[in-house]
Specification:
Blueprint: H1 8-12, H2 28-38, H3 41-49, H4 52-63, H5 78-89, H6 100-111, H7 118-134, H8 139-162, H9 176-187, H10 200-207, H11 212-230, H12 238-255, H13 259-282
Length: 285
């Protein structure tokens, strides 16, 4: 069993976060530097797992040659991806520098004549992120990634269903909730009755809200409240800090929200929905 570290002074010095706070916070890059300087290296590595979804998006942009599309929250640079490509193409065996699930996709990309469709890459990389986080050995991350995956799967299920696409092509993981969602789709029913975990019914209500920005707000509030639930008895530990880090990103996100940003978020949602339609048609959905 690994020794748990307690960060009394660091946690005591953290700024109090409120969901609707307009207080100006340092950029995420600055806060991550604080984490790096104050956390044990093993605990800091755990915080990096939360940014793998950004790395996943950047890997897709890299493979597809979209140099103008880059998520600044990612921990991997273009140079990292280029170096991993060099390693995979090298005759001499070298140690990989990226997570295994990324390496597997890159290797398949290299060996494929036609490449891999964006939708398939997103699904496979998301599943790789979930597996890696669940294998982290950290209680908070295990609970968090299950909740966030359930939340995203519910949104994906409702979007696919509204477009008459088989959600099985898009849902992440192979767990009881995913299987129940697939059964719900096959049954032709609109909504679940008694799904587990207990938060699922509330997430369905949020995901069904027709007002885009209000739905986004309720979604982040649900994330915030869930973090409070699973860190309630945590004091000065990495679990508390991981929850704080997610809340920090939420406050930053809404602190920058203005009408133009809201319009951009809506446009992204429409674009993602169009991509879902295209990929569904390609798969005969």
């Amino acid at each position: 069993m690994q020794l748990k570290h307690y960060y009394y002074y660091f946690v005591a010095g953290l700024t109090d976060l409120l969901f609707d706070s307009s207080k100006s916070l340092p950029e995420m890059s600055e806060f991550r530097e604080e984490l790096k300087n104050n956390l044990h290296s093993r605990d800091y590595d755990l915080t990096s797992l939360l940014f793998l979804p950004s790395d996943n998006k950047n890997l897709i942009s890299f493979l597809e040659g979209k140099d103008d599309v880059w998520d600044p929250l990612g921990t991997c640079t273009r140079e990292d991806f280029e170096e991993q490509m060099r390693i995979l193409r090298s005759i001499i065996r070298e140690k990989n520098i990226l997570p295994d699930y990324m390496v597997e996709l890159m290797l398949e990309w290299i060996n494929s004549e036609e490449g891999i469709k964006s939708a398939e890459m997103r699904k496979r990389l998301s599943e790789g992120y979930v597996r890696k986080t669940l294998d982290s050995g950290n209680r908070f991350l295990e609970k968090w990634v299950r909740f966030d995956t359930d939340l995203n799967n519910i949104f994906t299920f409702l979007n696919a269903k509204s477009l008459n696409l088989d959600p099985g092509n898009y849902l992440i993981g192979n767990d009881p909730l995913t299987n129940e969602l697939l059964e719900l789709f096959r049954s032709g029913k609109d909504f679940p009755v008694n799904f587990e975990p207990g938060y699922v019914s509330e997430l369905f209500k949020i995901a069904s809200d027709n007002e885009f920005l209000e739905r986004e707000r309720k979604t982040d509030i649900a994330r915030w409240n869930y973090i409070d639930t699973i860190t309630y008895f945590e004091y000065f530990t990495i679990d508390l800090i991981l929850g704080y880090l997610i809340k920090y990103s939420i406050v930053l996100r809404w602190g920058k929200l203005d009408p133009e940003t809201g319009k951009t978020m809506l446009q992204k949602f429409i674009k993602d929905t169009e991509a879902l339609i295209i990929s569904g048609n390609l798969k005969g959905g």
